[in-house]
Protein 1
Amino acid sequence: MHTSTLNRILLVCLVAVCAIWLIIPFTMAILWSLVDPSEPWTPDKLFPPAMSLYRWQNMWENSSLKSALFNSYTLAPLAAILTLTLAIPTSFALGRLKFPGREFFKMVAILPLVVPGFVLSIFFSSLLFQLGLTGSRFAAILLAHSVLFMPYAIRIMTVSFEQVRDDHVNAARDLGASALERWSVAYLPALKPGILATLLIVFIQSIEEFAIGFIIGIPDFVTIPTLLYSQMGQDFVRPNAAVLALILVVPNVILLLILERLLKSANPAMSSGKG
Amino acid sequence: MTAREWIKIALLLTPGIGLILFFVGSVIYVAIAQSFGLYNLAGESKLSLEFWELLSGKRVFARSIGYSFFIGVTSALLSVALAYPLALWLRKPFRGSLLIGALLKAPLLVHGLVAAFLFVNIIAYHGVVNQFLQAIGVFDGPRRLQNDDKGISVLILQVWKNMPFALLLLTGAVQSISDDVLNAGRDLGAGSFARFRRIIAPLSVSAMQAALVIVFIGALADFSFQTIVGPTNKQSLAQYMTFFSSKGRWNEAAVVGVTMMGLSLVGALGLTLAAKLVFGGRK
Amino acid sequence: MIKNILSGVAALAISASAVVADDLSSMSWDDIVAQAKEEGEVTFANWFLQDELRAAMAAFEEEYGITVNIPEGDNAAFNNKLLAEAGNETGDIDVFPRGFNDFENLDLPGLFIKLDALPADDGRVTELVGIDGQGFAVAYWGNQTGISYDPARIAAEDLPQTPEDFAVFWAANPGKFGFNYEKGGSGPSFYMNMLANLTGVDLSVPDDSPERIAALEPGFEFFREHAENYVITASNGDSITRVSDGELWMAPGWEDHVAGLQVRGEIRKEIEFYVPSMGMNGGGNGVAIPKNAPHPAAALVFVNWLTSAETQSMFNATFGTAPMHAEADDSAALVPNEQRAYRQPWGAQPFRGTIEEVFIETVVQER
């Protein structure tokens, strides 16, 4: 079979699956979010008996949604950048330099992942208190997130550094390129997908992280997960949870489309000829 | 290695691993100490094996270790197994590949709790899945799908949430394999599975290991999916730990926590080694 | 660990906040109100119905011009936060709520200020279900566990009242009765009272020796024997949602939770609620003021308002709670007054906790 025909068939199947995977749950969520408080939606009715935007309005006015959105969406990009910056030197060492104990340090780098979230956050916050780092809750959470998500950054960036091709570096050097030029010609193209993946993953992890944001943050620093846990933990109320779910998806979809473009432009196979 | 080189490496490692060692190392130290009866929040502290003995005698504990390990390993393997073909398919851009990539990665940006909520909503007793299966005659009447005993719901959610993550890691690795290498494989008459086994997998084994480990550790420590859709007759380790910590029983919580850390390490090492053994070293 | 790290700071903090507390108890109420207005805000760490309570705080905010912050979070997390911050000179929480019986497990004099400065009011509830607030805690939210049911499926006169009745109902209607076992309290209230009735073991005795646990074994066996016929749910909210959906016909719940969900149109208004004659647990939540409260005067004024007859009547009308003031109006409650007699106090700790643990191990996990 011709590749393009195959691609088309695969594409149709996949779009169908994704539709079921994404569209049905979200349609249900939209319907639930429109249930008017005057009459609950029971399973014998196909659509909610009374629909209104009351819950949307109520959620916007009476919950901490606005500040949670602002806080999380300022925190996450900064955490992503800080984590990446802190991780690059270590990843360079682990990915490009040969030294005894390298494998050991690679294992050390995943330590934050093996400590369960709540254990980590409770002791982490007391450590921060002890160091007197509680002046700014924002800075404290930012630092905590950077340490917590460092393993992802180190892991991904180490792999990226490993994939930088020696012949490219050498060729650049032989052609008399300066350190900066070597970096931008030989390293950057190979690192770009890793950098973007790191930023994306830390961003997502930071948006999702609950324990630290909560223990250090409350009461006056609300993040999205803190809000979600109180609205959507085990005792969720369907219509309210639906509103919140939908509101939170919108900025993420926009973000995803932007990132997808960035990732595409970072395709190393395209940016460095035949790769 | 000269002293100069060592200093250079130490400086490079400080902002990343140094920070981790300082913060996380002290937390781990405290957790381990607590599991042996030290550093108590309330009451006196003394070194003892009491809490380890107490918990090792409990069947619930053994069961939750087995269960969490199962969820962790299965989620990791399924996510990576699903992500590979997709990553290969999306290796070269084609019409619509951007859309597919976006659709596939969408779950990354849906918060776990939101996903669990959407999922419970559609598998409810009178939810759309039940109604659809009744309409086409698979079910005679509504069935209870929530909190199934096998943990299938948890696995579905874990894969839904983690497969895109694995895809993200694998896409980068697979894209950096040059066409020359793949074409050479084809010219030598390798079938598609053989090409995967002998060329693609070994060249992307690093990313595969990273994906396996990260998905495994996340799924092993799962709390939110388990409490909402998980089986009611089993507890995940995180759930079990919270059971103790919410009652202020920090020593027992620490035992579970330390066990979870140990399992994470063992599982991560195991998966890393397994991937290396099966698919060979890197280039 | 936290204690260790912060012990030095803690000593300082306690002496510092003691001065503040002394200041307040020597001030006149008018002066306290004046200082409260100056402080301008109060943080009330309530862990349930946050959005709805924020709206209900408007009355207080209007009367005193003091803003009430209700943060996001759950009970255990606020508790952790209180303990983690106990060593700090200034904490984050002004008014700390907790299940009244849980105050028993906290170091009241170490953590909270005496509420002596409140104006005298005999109608306030300072002792509930056998637990004494000792002048540190006062009740503000009454609640009762019971069983919510769908009257279209089961008539009031057929409602099970004893463990034997429940077994008959389970056998006749398998899969139609569900309860939660860990989080949320209403399920545990149900099975604890079943166990007490089946075995005659006294839950109000704290002793959790192996013999006392062994005496409950026939009760555990009863639940194991009927395991096929009942359902385990994830939480209070999950239980009541499934009753409203028609999946379940009966499930334990909280009176105030069910009433509140009905008021807000989240579950069917037809769902009814009763307390079986075998008894189920009831009580309420209390508030206390941490020693390191950032706005101590505002906290006192708020507690005074929260526990007043007017506020308690308003809570009854808005949330269906049992009022925690002798003179408040209780006409909007779900539980008929004659069934209030079936209220049982929560079992004593550590026995209750041990039962929960053994129940999970030997019943829930053996399903």
Protein 2
Amino acid sequence: MTEEKEKNNTVPFFPDHAAQEAKVALGVGVILIIIGVLGLFFPVGLAAPADPLNTPLHVKPEWYFLFLYQLLQFIPKTVGSTAPVIGVAILALWPFIDFKADKTKKAMRYRAIIAAVIMIIIIALSIWGEVK
Amino acid sequence: MKPISRRIITIATLVVVFLLFSAAAVHAYTANETANDLGNTAYAPSVSRDAPEPEKDTCFQCHITGEYTNLWTATARWAVFGVAGLVFLFGVIRSVSVWRTREAWKPIPTRVMEWVDERYQLSEFLEPILSKPVPEWQRRWWYCLGGLTFFLFLVQGATGIMLAFYYKATPETAYASIQFIETEVRLGAAIRAIHHWSANGMIIMAVAHMLRVFIMGAYKKPRELNWISGAVLLIVTLAFGFTGYLLPWDQRAYWATTVGTEIAGGIPVIGNLALVLLRAGWNVTALTLSRFYALHVLIIPIITVGTMLMHFIMVRKQGVMKPL
């Protein structure tokens, strides 16, 4: 009975769903073409050629490693180097840490709060590292 | 959503193509102006530095270096009149065929599919994949973040291959080859901009997809292995960014890599090993550059494609988790 009901609320993957996905991809593709045309007039550009003997005043990694770099200013180097390894290990093995099946929507809300807090910390550290 | 009519799509495509051609023409014009102050019109062949006289010019690749700017006129002419001719030819063939056989016209894609199917029984294999029902609740925008990451990865592959045609991975030539791509190669700056920004977009999309999966709890039994493959994909995406950042070999790239590998060197016990493995020595040198290039264009893409395949097969087998 329920299976029958569920079947009525579906669309075939091809062509209905695939067409919708293609439209989304096409939209992103148009944005990328606009970025490309803008790139003709405002190229990505280059800094000065690399010079191993001349350290610039403000050395910065890419923006997605900036929070880690900023974090390293406050904690010892060994801790700061080990933390991302442990963080990635925890991230990869998270399904075995939080393994109980959800019974209510409450767990989802808690996880949303955890994710929001971590993201706010990362974004704050990144902005701090950027403006400094 | 109301379906968009074919006429509007055709007109929009034509408008986009026209705008692209105009942008390329304007770009060629401004590049001429600044380069040699000779180009008066968009299509005037510019005489640059030490190019031979136009009538003696035997260079067959001059369109690459931008010395021969009259490329688009011929291409556009062939495209417009060629397509018009093909449409006319198709109309004639179709009319004659319908008139002779007195049967409804079978579309060309159907004919191609039938031809292939007769020989390889392809529909037997594709039918279960393509006819899989997709529930309505799954057609929300937050379920397309992973797919968009994959799409941006494909874009990265295509633009990356284009850049690899001109990039030279040695300290002496890397910087100059990027300059060559930016200033001389036709649409090189556009391709580099797309590669640069879509790399950033890919990281944002991957993190957004991971947050969606995390918040919904879609990593729980039976989808643990899929989460692990996703974590591997996030790491290789960041590795793409890290290795790709060194390739321009400018001050920013050089010192970002120096600092980044130094962080890896701070890990207790295996720190020095990690540092030497990453840098191919104690310092960031020519060996580091070729190592990062090999990682960026060969090793990491192979790992990514393999892991993505596993990721997709698993999600296909188990389906997307239905939220409570």
